[in-house]
Request: fold
Amino acid sequence: MKRTIAAVAALAAASLALTACGGGSDSDSSSGSSGGPTTITVSGWSLSTTPEFQKLADAFSAKYPDYKVQVKEYDATNYNTLLTADLAAGKGPDVITQKEVKYLPTFVKGGQLADVSDLKAPDGIGGTDSYKVDGKTYALPYRMDSWVMFYNKDLFDKAGVTYPDGSWTWDDYVANLQKLKAGLPKGAYAAYLHNWQSTVQGLANAQSGADILKGDFSHLKEPYERTVGLQKDGLQVDFNTEKANQLTYQAEFGKQHAATMLMGSWYVATLISQQASGEADKFNWGFAPVPQMDSSTAGTSNTPVTFGDPTGFAVNAHADGAKKDAAEKFLQFASSEEAANMLAGIGITPALINDAVINTYFAVPGAPTDDLSKFAWATHKTLPENPTSDKTAAVQGILGDLHTAIMSGSKSPDDAIDEAEDRFKNEVG
Amino acid sequence: MSFILPNFLGFGLLTLVPVVTLFYMSLTNWNVFGTSQWVGLDNFKRLVHDRSFHTAVTNTFYYSAMHIPLTLVVSLSLALLLNTKLRGVAFFRTAAFFPYITSIVAIAMVWNIMFSPDAGPINALLRFVGVDHPPGWLTSTHWAMPAVAIVSTWRDMGYYMILFLAGLQTVPRELYEAARIDGASAWQRFRNVTLPGLRPTTFFITVILTINSFKIFDLILVLTHGGPGQSTTVISQFIYTKGFTESQFGYASAASVVLFALCLLVTLVVFLINKRRDA
Reply:
């Protein structure tokens, strides 16, 4: 019995020691300066449907023959969990792709990301602020989707409603949805709103300029009252039906069940490919800026406010020597105009947008060609869905509960907001 | 010692060490990246004041209070029914076991549609029998938890039925014959022969069922994800959110320790009750 206890104690001690010292980077023979190319690894996900990683890797290696880039694939839904486990074990990639901004503070706090404040991002690139923690930069963006309003031109024609002109405020939005409802054929709704909390909160946070980390959520009242009203009036599918039937936004808009849809610009590439493959119906479509709070930001002579988070690359804090150099070069390359053009060519919205990039993007066969779509894609003030902070994940959790409580009809916006504010004080405060 | 070593090594590495580590972690502010600091009982103090944790504990008890008795009654009734020598008993025994071996994701999808407040078959049936305002089930903060308990009972009943069936085979036949000769009714035979004869089985099932109810997680995650609002958030989900979404592994570990203590406590209570009855 004594021996058993001793064995258990030894095992426990060994495992603690293992977890405690798992901080070093995996050293590979290729990091030496012995003449061969230096190989760095970059984390990615769903490589078959997300071609950007391999494209960037290949283009980078072609430009810098001294470096080789290997893309390390992770499961998309468990990306941050798996990546965290690898980093904690010291087996992380040299370039760490930041899939969601909210995890960046944890990585920074855990000492996993190198300070890249010295790297210069090109002028006019969006999303760099999301990667700043305490004044230092920890990643460079290469991709930045922002939210727009997709609309089905054929359904607008059928309903006899004029296309959006970019000047819509939220009041215009509701009024136009009502006109659409009156004229649309049976089976088509005026709008589809997916069940994510960001569909309401992302826009509300960005357009009101509220700081959710202060714990005041009163700016959500009006957007939620409006959204619940749209549901009640039958202008969009009810949240409960959507959940019970597990509707997908791709099918709802792609199969013409809705005339308009607020969605991120990533859907452009999806819709083009689904129309080409026959998964989506063939119809004319375009996209417009999201509706604005008031006329001061609406219209094509102003800059509409929307939201979106960047995707970016960071350097592993444990990468050193040639690997660190290579990783930093990769970051700069991925955010450059050259890379932006290449990304636009495969339907991805780069963080850097200029005229050349716009032309490349809209030259893709199947893309809309109208001026408003181009305006909506290129001109906007995009604020992050959430501020970068170690409190963000907790606040998002609270606001997620608020979203389901209001949208399912279980609580009034007022009650749900009060409860969320109480919880903020109690749990985050 | 040496012949159990391979087995013990596996148990030690995969179960014992993580469990011991968990207790240590619950006393630190570990956030995965090895920068943990000893914080003593701070995590537990925070739990005491965390209202979301209170909600999670209350919801867990609420769920258990519905799920445990309901499952006991349903699975025992099924076992009694399928313990007779009717034709096709083997088929019905198998059928009752099906839900238990069905994928949980498939279960959630189908029940989600069945519970759909406007178009679902359950509410259609309720309206047909004259209920004017049937409940919103998974979309209502009041009805979501009962709905989860119903699905969960439906899923588990076959498994516990098998355990009860096995228990029923151990009740001596002579006792039934003696009771019948003494003129005992069917209810009296059940009350005075079957139930006492099943006590070891019932004890075992109650313990397992309680622990399983307390750590309910997968079904809720796919069925409601804790919503609407926090109406179906349970302790396991609280642990999952704090750990894997918010990277507060120390705090999540403390909540796990509380869950462990709750399971232990309930098991002890059931154990004591059983012992007193035996005496």
